[in-house]
Amino acid sequence: MRRRDTAFGLFALGALASPVQAQQASRRVGVLVAAAPASGFREIFEARLKALGWQEGRNLVLVYRSAEGKLERLPDLAEDLARSNADVIVTFLNPATLAVKRATPLTPIVMALGANPVAAGIVQSLAHPGGNITGMSFDAAPETYGKQLELLREIVPGVRRAGVFWESAVAGQDIYVAALDQAATTMRIELRYHDFTVIKDIVSPFESMRASATAGFVTIGGPVIQQRRKELADLAARYRLPGIWQSRVMTEAGGLMSYGPVGRQFWMRAAEYVDSILRGAKPADLPIQQPTEFELVVNMKTVKALGLTLPQSVLIRAGEVIE
User: Fold this and answer.
1) In this structure, what is the dihedral angle of CA atoms 75, 81, 84, 90, given to the nearest 10 degrees?
2) What is the pLDDT of residues 217-260, one digit of tens each?
3) Which of 31, 114, 166, 252 has the fewest beta carbons closer than 10 A?
C-alpha cells in the first residue's frame, strides 16, 4: 500500500527526526490527528514532554500525521503509524482514535481528546479503560452546549430558532446532542441540525439559516468543522449570523465566541500519559481524565463586523477578548 505522509501544513511540523537524531533516540511516539488542532498544540505537547525528561533528538522520536479533516485518510495513516514501531500513539478526536485502535490492538494509545469514549466503543469505562487506550475525554462538559444556547440568547434576545453544526459520523456524540436538545426545550428554542458528515457545500447551511429566519447557530465539534473553521467563520460573517463555537481555536479563526474546555490541558495531560506509559504504566490502569478548566473567548473584531453590542454580562465572564 502506498504510504501517505500527510504534512500539517501551517504547523510546519517536519515529520521525522534526522538519521543522527534517530540513532540517539530510544523511544518513539506517533501522533495522529483527524483535523488540525490549535496552532500551538505541538509546542505545548513537546514542552511538557521535555519537562518530564523526554526531548526529541536526545531520547525521543516524534512522528506526526494528519488527515486534515478527510476521514477516509485515517485508516492508511493509522496503519502507517502502527508499522512505525511506535512505543505510544497519541490521537486527536474519535475518528483518529478508532482508526488506530483498529490498526493495532497492542500499541498503547493516548487520546489527547476523545468524545464520550465509552459510548463510542473506545474504552470500557472512564475509571477502568481496559485494553490499550487511555487519555482525555470531553465527557465532563456536555452542559457546555446548553451554555452555548444561553450565550446565543443573551446576544440575540428573543431567539426562537437556532442552527446546530455537527457531524453524525463522529461516534459518541449522542450525549452532547441530548444535552443540547434538553437545553433547547427548556429555553423554547427550535433547533435545526446541519450535518457536516453529508454536507459537501458548506455554504448551504448558511443559505438555509437565512431563508428560515434562524437567529444564529451553535456547534458540536468534529474533524470537518475543526479543519474548515476559517471558511465557516468567514461565511458566518458574510451572512451576518452569530455563532457560538465549542473551542477557542474557532474564535481565533474569526468565530464570534466560544465556550468550552481550555485546549492546552488536553495536550499537557497527553504528554503526562505518554511519560507514564514510557516508564512502564499500562493504559488499562490509567483512568480517563476529564477537563477541569473552561473558558469563554470573545472575538471583538467579529462582534464589530456583525454589528453586535454585547451585554456587559457576557464581557465580564470572558476569560479572553481578542481585539
Assistant:
1) -160
2) 999 878 899 899 999 999 999 999 999 998 888 999 999 999 98
3) 252
C-alpha cell at 113: 481528546
What distance in Å separates the CA atoms of residue 290 and residue 68, rounded to the nearest whole number? Answer: 25
Burial 248-281 (b: 16+ CB within 10 A, else e): bbbbbbbbbbbbbbbbbbbbbbbbbbbbbbbeee
* Model pLDDT, residue 43: 95
Under a CB-based contact definition with an 8 Å cutoff, are residues 165 and 205 in contact? yes
pLDDT exceeding 70 applies to what percent of the chain?
91
Element containing residue 296 per DSSP (H, E)? strand 294-299
The one-letter amino acid code at 226 reads: Q
Side-chain-side CA neighbours of 202 within 13 Å: the count stands at 19
245's enclosing H/E stretch is strand 243-245
